[in-house]
Amino acid sequence: MRNLPTLEGQGLRLEPLRPEDVSERYVGWLNDPDITRHTEARHGRHSLTSVLAYVVTAISDPNAAMWRIVVDGIHIGNIRLSDVNFVHRRASVALLIGERGYRGAGHGTEAVDLVARHGLTQMDLNKVTAGIYRTNIASRRAFEKAGFELEAVLRRHAFEDGLFVDVLQMARFASP
Known about the structure:
Blueprint: E1 7-8, E2 13-16, H1 24-30, H2 33-36, H3 48-60, E3 65-71, E4 74-85, E5 90-97, H4 107-122, E6 127-133, H5 137-145, E7 149-160, E8 163-173
Parallel strand pairs: 5-6
Antiparallel strand pairs: 1-2, 2-3, 3-4, 4-5, 6-8, 7-8
Helix pairs in contact: 4-5
């Protein structure tokens, strides 16, 4: 998505992700099983080349937007708005906080809230959704604090750690 704005929060900034943001540290997040345990990024081994190719494709997608999450000048993670559908006025959001020292400090909640508000107001969307593994309690709490509510449970929808797990479909709606 072109002309992506920087979004300012209380404790962080969301800046449009750029190819030059791909670093060994970023790739390390994606190769850390503790960080990616509840994400699709856990599949496969990532390299600078593969992550750069992913970022270039993602930021050129007219139906997606990616921001880097910056706290105190440090790139701590990313947030993506994807599957933007202007006919049905909906999109999906996904979040990754890669820097361990910044996890559990409310930055995920703030980033999700900023992106949801941007989508629901500036992009005129009616609904922003997120799919969260039932086992990802921290992510569910972050999205709930950001105004998302449980919309549906997709039973045994994902395979994690040798078991099928439910995926919680969360949603936040524009004001009527």
